[in-house]
Design goal:
Elements (H helix, E strand, L loop, with lengths): L2 E6 L4 H12 L3 E6 L7 H8 L13 H4 L10 H10 L8 E4 L2 E4 L3 H7 L26
């Protein structure tokens, strides 16, 4: 099994569920606070390799939801500058296993990458905020 360095927003419901799936599959999870990490361009780019810039963003971040930041309209350099200034904009989780870096938690992709328990395949959307409603803003 793998040792997964897991960058999360503490107390995020989905990140908690994602860590649980990884642990149940026998992986060691080392949780780190995504919001207090000292990010720089090089460290973030490791996670984003091969992805479109728009896919780097947390779609539940207040600045994205309000339209202040439009992921499809920013350059890679602008995105990195914004994310370093406000890590809530970074899509979660960021995961590292050895020298392999990933962003987001698509169950099928994680299954193919490091493996999950078969029962975890039942729930496939572990990225959208489950706390939707007029009173809650998940970010």
């Amino acid at each position: 099994m793998a040792t997964v360095v897991f960058y999360e927003k503490p107390n995020c419901v989905n990140n908690t569920r994602q860590k649980k799936l990884l642990s149940e599959a026998g992986h060691e999870v080392i949780a780190k606070d995504l919001l207090s990490e000292a990010w720089d361009e090089a460290s973030l780019l490791l996670f984003f390799k091969g992805l479109a810039v728009a896919d780097w963003f947390n779609r539940s971040a207040p600045q994205v939801k309000s339209g202040e930041v439009m992921p499809e309209k920013v350059s890679a350099k602008q995105a990195l500058t914004l994310m370093i200034a406000n890590p809530l904009l970074i899509r979660r989780p960021l995961m590292q296993v050895n020298q392999d870096y990933r962003v987001g938690f698509d169950v099928e992709s994680v299954q193919n990458w490091i493996g999950l328990q078969p029962s975890s395949q039942q729930e496939t959307d572990l990225e959208s905020c489950p706390r939707k409603g007029s009173q809650h803003v998940c970010h």
